[in-house]
Specification:
Elements lengths: L1 H9 L7 E6 L11 E6 L4 H13 L4 E4 L5 E3 L4 E7 L7 E4 L2 E5 L4 H10 L2 E2 L11 H7 L2 E2 L2 E2 H4 E8 L2 E6 L11 H5 L2 E8 L1 E2 L2 H18 L6 E4 L9 H7 L6 E2 L2 E3 L6 E4 L5 H19 L8 E3 L3
Parallel strand pairs: 2-5, 3-5, 4-19
Antiparallel strand pairs: 1-2, 6-7, 7-13, 8-14, 9-10, 11-12, 11-13, 15-18, 16-17, 17-18
Bound molecules: flavin-adenine dinucleotide.
Length: 302
C-alpha cells in the first residue's frame, strides 16, 4: 500500500487526494460498504491517467467511482484502488448549444448550466444523483429521456489510450453500454442541446423534481431503482404483488413509498441489503414467474 502512495505522490498527487482505508459507505448513496484500500481523488485528466497507470504497473485492481448512486459495496470493502471522480474532476464548459463536462461533474450541475444558457434537452437528468461518467456508462434515463438522446461524443480510456467515440459507437441500451461491458472509462462527455425557453425549462425541472419527491423515498439512503424494468412490467408493481412492500431485513427495507426502491432505514449492512434483494428476486420469481435483474452494481468482498 505504502508503495502505491509513494508512486502517486512522486507523480504529483497531494496527500489530501489519497485516503487509505476510505469507508465506501461515505462515497455511496446507499451508505453501506466497508473500506477500500486506497481511494484516489484526481483533479485533472492527467491525474486520472497517472492513477490508472500506477494501478496497472503495481498489479492493483481498480474501480472508477462517480457519485456512488448506483453502487453497493459489500461489507468487507474493496481490495485495491478506487478512483473517485466526483470531488475534483468535475469542470464543465458551454460552447453554443453543447456542454462538455468532465466525468465527475454532477448531472445536476450540468442541468443548471443548461438552464442558465436557456438550453433544453437535459431536464430529464437533473434529478438523477449521479455524475456524467456514471450516467453515460449506465445510459441513465428518466421521464422519457435518456443520455443516448443528447450525447454527442465521449472521451474514453481503453488499455491506457484515450480516444473519442461518437454516441452510436457506445451501443447505449436500457441501462447498458459498451462502456460497462468492456470496462472502458469515461473521461469526459459532450451533450448536444437545443435552444429553449428558460421559463419552460425551469418549469419542467421543477415538475420532475416534484414528481420524484412525491413518488420516491428521497428521505432515506438508497441506490434508486434497485431492479431494471422487466419488459412489459414494472418492478415496483411486481414486488408489491408479491406482498413485499415494507418487508425488511436488518436495516434494509423495501420502501413503503415505492416498492422498486430498497432503502437503508438506518444501520443497514451491505449483507442486509443484498440478502433482501435476493429474497425479493426469489419471491417475485415464485409469484409472477419473472426474474428481476439488478440495476444496481455490486462490488467488493464480504
Ligand atoms: C434517489 C435516486 C434516484 C435515482 N434515479 C435514477 C433515474 O431516474 N434514472 C437512472 O437512470 N438512474 C437513477 N438513479 C441511479 C444512479 O443515479 C444512476 O445510475 C447514475 O447514472 C449513476 O451515476 P454515478 O456517477 O453515481 O455512478 P456510480 O454509482 O459511481 O457508478 C455506477 C457504475 O458506473 C461505473 N462508472 C462510474 N463512473 C464511471 C466512469 N467515469 N467511466 C466508466 N464507468 C464509470 C462504476 O464503476 C459503476 O459500475 C438514482 C439513484 C438514486 C440514489
Amino acid at each position: 500500500m505504502r508503495e502505491w502512495i509513494r508512486v502517486l505522490m512522486d507523480a504529483g498527487f497531494e496527500a489530501g487526494q489519497l485516503r487509505e482505508g476510505q469507508p465506501m459507505c461515505e462515497l455511496t448513496t446507499m451508505k453501506v460498504g466497508g473500506p477500500v484500500d486506497l481511494a484516489v481523488f484526481p483533479r485533472t485528466r492527467e491525474q486520472v491517467l497517472v492513477a490508472l497507470e500506477a494501478a496497472k504497473q503495481l498489479g492493483c485492481p481498480c474501480l472508477v467511482v462517480g457519485g456512488g448512486s448506483n453502487l453497493i459495496v459489500r461489507d468487507g470493502g474493496i481490495r485495491g484502488m478506487a478512483i473517485v471522480l466526483s470531488e475534483g474532476f468535475c469542470r464543465a464548459t458551454i460552447d453554443g448549444c453543447t456542454i462538455t463536462a468532465e466525468a465527475g461533474a454532477r448531472l445536476s450541475a450540468v442541468g443548471s448550466m443548461a438552464l442558465t444558457a436557456n438550453l433544453s434537452g437535459f431536464e430529464f437528468a437533473c434529478g438523477i444523483p449521479g455524475t456524467v461518467g456514471g450516467a453515460v456508462a449506465m445510459n441513465a434515463g428518466a421521464y422519457g429521456g435518456q443520455i443516448a438522446d443528447c450525447l454527442l461524443w465521449a472521451d474514453l480510456l481503453r488499455e491506457g489510450k484515450v480516444y473519442r467515440a461518437g454516441a452510436k459507437e457506445l451501443e447505449l441500451g436500457y441501462r447498458s453500454s459498451r462502456i460497462l461491458k468492456e470496462g472502458l472509462i469515461v473521461l469526459s462527455a459532450c451533450f448536444a442541446l437545443k435552444p429553449g425557453d428558460g421559463k419552460a425549462i425551469l418549469g419542467r425541472m421543477n415538475e420532475l423534481a416534484a414528481s420524484r419527491r412525491d413518488k420516491q423515498p428521497l428521505d432515506h439512503p438508497s441506490s434508486g431503482s434497485t431492479f431494471k424494468r422487466p419488459q412489459g412490467h414494472f418492478a415496483g408493481a411486481l414486488i408489491q404483488q408479491a406482498g413485499l412492500k415494507g418487508y425488511g431485513i436488518g436495516g434494509a427495507q423495501v420502501s413503503e413509498k415505492h416498492a422498486g426502491f430498497v432503502i437503508n432505514r438506518g444501520g443497514a449492512t451491505a449483507r442486509d441489503v443484498l440478502e433482501l434483494i435476493g429474497q425479493v428476486q426469489e419471491k417475485v420469481l415464485a409469484v409472477s414467474g419473472i426474474r428481476l435483474e439488478c440495476e444496481v452494481r455490486v462490488v467488493g468482498e464480504d
